[in-house]
Structures are given as C-alpha cells and as structure tokens.
Design goal:
CATH superfamily of the largest domain: Zn peptidases
Strand content: 25-35%
Oligomer: single chain
Strand order of the largest sheet: 1-2-3-13-4-14-18-16-17
Number of helices: 11
Structural class: alpha/beta
Number of domains: 2
Radius of gyration: 23 Å
Helix content: 25-40%
Number of strands: 20
Distance between the termini: 31 Å
CATH class of the largest domain: Alpha Beta
CATH topology of the largest domain: Aminopeptidase
Shape: globular
Length: 441
C-alpha cells in the first residue's frame, strides 16, 4: 500500500464534498434519492418520460424515466446508437438499515413503539443510541391520479425515534462479548409515551396521515426507513474526511447524476441507471435484475434503427461502469486487507477486481479504465479482497450476465460500510465525477 500523503484541498473539491453531503441529507430514503436526482436532471434540461406512453425520441435529446418512485434511468440519445452502443453508469439508491413494519405500532408498558424489519445487511449495533428519523413514501387514495393512487414523500425529522441501549449494569459483559441486537425482539423503536386512553395503531396512522397531508382513511400503504438524523459533516484536522449516512451508495448516485447532467450528445447514447434493491439481491421490478434498463435500451435502439440485429450490435459496442463504494484500508484492522491491493481514502478512484466475478472487471475492462483514468487525469487504485474473507458483490455481474454488457466495477474508498453513519475522504468525490464525465465524453 502506498504511503499516505495528504492531498492539497482545493475550493472545487470542498464544494463538491459539500454538494455530496447536501444530496445525501436530502435523500433519507431511496424514493427521496430518486427525487433528488430527478430534480437535478430536470434543471439540466432532461424531459420526463412515462413507461405507459409512446416515446418520440430525438437525436441528442435528454430524457429520464422513473419506475415506481425508486429507480431512475436518464440518457442522452446518441447519433449512432446501433453502431456506437451505450455508455452506461449503474448505481443503486438503497442502503442497508431498518424498515418499519406495515402494522408495527404497538403499546408496551406505557410506550408507543414501532417494530422494524432488517433491510439488507446493516451493522445493527450502530443504530442504537442514535437520533433516528423516519422517511420514505406514503401511498394515498387520489381519484384523479393514475390507478387512483398517488405517492407522497414524507420525512418525519429531528430524532423522532430511538433504539435505547440497555445499561451496562444489566449487561455487564457487553464490552467483552460485543453488543448483540436481537433481529426480531430488539428492533422496536421508541416513539412516544402513551396512556390507556390512546390506541397505538390509531396514533401511528394519525401521524402518517398528518405528514402526508391527507385524512387517515386515504392512507393505503407506506414504505418507511429509520435512518440517522444527524446531518453530514467534515472531520479531521484538515477537514479531509466526511461522515454521513448512506455513502454506500448515494455517493455513486450523486456522481453519476452530475456527470449525466453535464454530458453532451455523442455517437453513443450516454445513460445512468439508478436501481433499487441492490442490498437485497436486485431481484425486483426496480432492481438491476429486473427488466427496466433492458426495456429502455430497446426503445432507444428501436427509435434510431429498424434493423433486427440493432440491439445486439449496440450491446456489443457498449460499456457499463458499475459504480459502488469500496473498502478503504482501516489502520486499526490491518489484517483484514491484502496489503498489495489496499485502498486509501483521498488517493483516487478504486477499480474493483475479483477472480470469482463478484466484481465484473476483467483484464480488458481493467485496461479500459486505466486509459480512462489517464485521460481524465485521475489517480486509480486497484482493489482485490483478502482471499480468506467473503467478498461482497454489486449490480455489475448482474448486468454483465443478463445483458451481455462489457462491465467494469469502480467505486471510492470508505470506512464503516453498512453502518448507520459511514465515513470517507472529502477529496475523492471530485475525481469520481471527473472519471465518469470522461467515460461519457
């Protein structure tokens, strides 16, 4: 691993890191993240399309489409897509954590509590004794909307709920044994004090309906996350680090969105695809294993070429960057890394490689990104997981296998992946965006 050298911080890098923190603060759920990206792309001139409608695409046109509020695809139509293919950046909008159960409100000994269900693979102990907010979407009855249903994004802010720890006097060995949170009985969030005159379910429904601005009878369903309420912040002597929830993988969504907003028309079609459900395997309508991206690509190709083999030719000419965060070297746990392939924060974008194809990078993809980084003047680090530890995966292998796309896995280094509050380098986001812009250019 190369020696640590503190990079010189520029005003541009500082502004980029602050913009990332603002983006994540505005995105406490996958549905908010999609809305935040959609808003930035709309300002950049992207037109919103709808899957139920016919599309009339123009060469060089800037478009976006959203599926079920949780997945977004945006693209600039290429001048010769069938021959030049696509340049696609894929990322995911979801993060591991806690989701409120559909009938989770209950009264226990004078307290209103919300039962939650584990989503993905969070570090459960990090959710205890933290200020948590609730955010997500409420589905309401609306006679004037499609199918009579409408989505309302809600954010119940400022430390609404909490998961208090047991005092050490009742758990004397916690520091020796580690804090273990029971996955069923230990994840009931403390919401309010309640007396015998009030019904827990009614109080919860009233809170939801007030947040959505509708009557209680118009609330038909909800998806809510319990997430860290503390805003993102810089830390370190030189403010060289950042701490915030959901860096995995909203940092990639933010970088992809900004690169997409600034891309220009080319022979190829430039595209970003922000999927939901990566943390639970991507097997869903809005996940990378679904049909969303494949159907959008087929529509784009059909708009520019009637040839029967146009889609196959386009795919063969395409490149896909699977953008997901990477594991930074932890100085207190040096035995968890391959010293030849360890990553440092603030030292460049990570190229992720795994012989078992948990990451989709191969030698040709490695060469492609090495050249890409050289042209972008971005430092590149190469990551290989320690051989005796299980390696995570990404949407990269899924899209490579399902669609036949040449795929490379990239990311930026971070600490405490899947914690309630994660941390990373403050300088890396600028280079992440620069590499993506070079990819589109």
């Amino acid at each position: 691993m190369p020696a640590i050298k503190r990079p010189a911080k520029t005003a541009s890098e500082n502004a980029t890191a602050r913009a990332l923190l603002r983006f994540i603060d505005a995105s406490p759920s996958p549905w908010h993240a999609v809305a935040a990206s959609q808003g930035q792309l709309q300002v950049a001139g992207y037109e919103l399309l709808h899957e139920r409608e016919s599309w009339k695409l123009k060469l060089g046109g800037r478009y976006m489409v959203v599926r079920d509020d949780a997945a977004l695809i945006a693209f600039v139509v290429g001048k010769a897509t069938a021959d030049a293919g696509f340049r696609i950046i894929g990322a995911h909008t979801d993060s591991p954590g806690l989701r409120v159960k559909t009938q989770g409100a209950s009264a226990t000994a004078g307290y209103l509590r919300l039962a939650t269900e584990i989503y993905g693979g969070p570090i459960l102990a990090t959710f205890t004794d933290r200020d948590l907010l609730l955010a997500g979407r409420v589905i309401i009855r609306d006679a004037g909307a499609t199918d009579g249903l409408r989505t309302v994004l809600i954010r119940l802010d400022e430390a609404l709920v909490r998961l208090p720890n047991l005092a050490i006097h009742m758990h004397r060995t916690v520091n020796e044994d580690g804090l273990k949170v029971h996955k069923h009985t230990g994840l009931n969030l403390l919401l309010a004090a309640i007396d015998d005159k009030h019904d827990a379910a009614s109080m919860w429904l009233r809170l939801l309906s007030n947040a959505a601005g509708v009557t209680e009878t118009d609330v038909l369903g909800f998806d809510l996350c319990a997430v860290d309420a503390q805003r993102g912040a810089f830390f370190g002597q030189h403010k060289e680090f950042i701490a915030v929830r959901a860096l995995d993988n909203l940092a990639s969504c933010h970088a992809a969105t900004l690169a997409m907003a600034n891309t220009a028309p080319a022979a190829h079609t430039s595209m970003i695809a922000l999927f939901d459900h990566e943390e639970i395997g991507s097997q869903s309508r809005t996940g990378a294993a679904g049909t969303f991206m494949q159907e959008v690509m087929a529509r784009i190709v059909a708009s520019s070429s009637p040839a029967a083999d146009a889609m196959a030719r386009a795919v063969a000419a395409s490149w896909h960057l699977s953008a997901d965060m990477a594991h930074a070297f932890h100085p207190a746990h040096t035995d968890c890394y391959d010293p030849l392939h360890a990553l440092k924060v603030n030292a460049g974008v990570a190229l992720k490689i795994n012989a078992s194809q948990r990451y989709a990078t191969n030698a040709s993809g490695e060469a492609f990104v090495v050249e890409l980084a050289r042209k972008a003047k971005v430092n590149l680090q190469k990551y290989v997981h320690r051989a005796d530890l299980a390696c995570g995966s990404t949407i990269g292998p899924i899209n490579a296998a399902r669609l036949g796309l040449r795929t490379v896995d990239i990311g930026t280094p971070m600490w405490a992946m899947h914690s309630c509050r994660e941390s990373a380098g403050a300088f890396d986001q600028k280079n992440y965006i620069r590499l993506m812009q070079q990819f589109f250019d």
